[in-house]
């Protein structure tokens, strides 16, 4: 538990850095001239790189057993790419896209090793509970990051929007530095986390069994329909924070451009609570927890993209947070139960590779559909997520 809490605090400061950036990156890129399709493509490409390469680095981690070196290298790339966004020019959205991909590559390097390290401790305390606790701490950071940027925007009020946003990215270098220091402290305190989980008496090679295949197919459909937050924040900045008139302008002040980080902060709070609730539910009910969370999150797109009501928008963003919480707790916990210790990094890498490819395809498709028909985009998003539920149920039946 001490390891899980300390590693969770590392994640807290890490999430302050990159989730703080996520809260304004879509609006920042739109400000620099990027279209919805370009933002959707860049976000999806970043996710595809960040997830598809996890299989490669997962295999490498299993073969070498270098859990900490891989984790540290990934964190360094992940963290440094965020404050670098402050250095792109007013028309530098292509450079911003490149930094997004670099940041996701850092996550690709660190995640299989990090999740495997976590799974060693989680095997002793309950996988759902352990990943839920870590996600709770993650999302406290994901809440504090956008709040920090909101305070920066308050202090910088009166300047031009671009320089304000650039300053926000520069400020994120502070929690980024704290992340790296705490990571090294954790490494020194727990140099051999693999000892948390006893070695199996008999070596069990990794095989793609049918329940795991069904599970991967289900999470791939979920990923296809789960729009990246960059697309959501771009929509909100255009529809609710772009100088609206009449009654909508009066209520829309809640989501004015200066308040956009708070909207993401609220989603991260929901994410934190959902991760803990559904993580504990997973330990008791298995994949039933994922069925429930997916049914809830599938409704976020119609509520976010098809409304002029701020309360309905806020409900939609909250349901998006439920989906994120499930993604970061239940999805990882399920892999722990399906894949043996000796090849778990490979299992995580394969699972996240498929997730990332379909998130890329979905983000690109949803971004392109947004430019053509917003109702069609919302319908595709909801339908793809709901289509995952029968596959979860089949995986449960054959496990």
Notes on the protein architecture:
The chain is built from 16 helices and no strands. It is mostly helical and 399 residues long. The protein has one domain: Growth Hormone, Chain: A. The longest helix is centred in the N-terminal third of the chain and has 33 residues, at 93-125. It is globular and about 60 Å long. It starts with a helix and ends with a helix. Mean pLDDT is 81; it is low at 243-253.
Outline of this structure?
The protein is an all-alpha fold and 399 residues long. Helix content is 80%, strand content 0%. Helix 1 crosses helix 5, helix 1 (2-31) runs antiparallel to helix 11 (260-285) and helix 11 (260-285) runs parallel beside helix 14 (310-338).
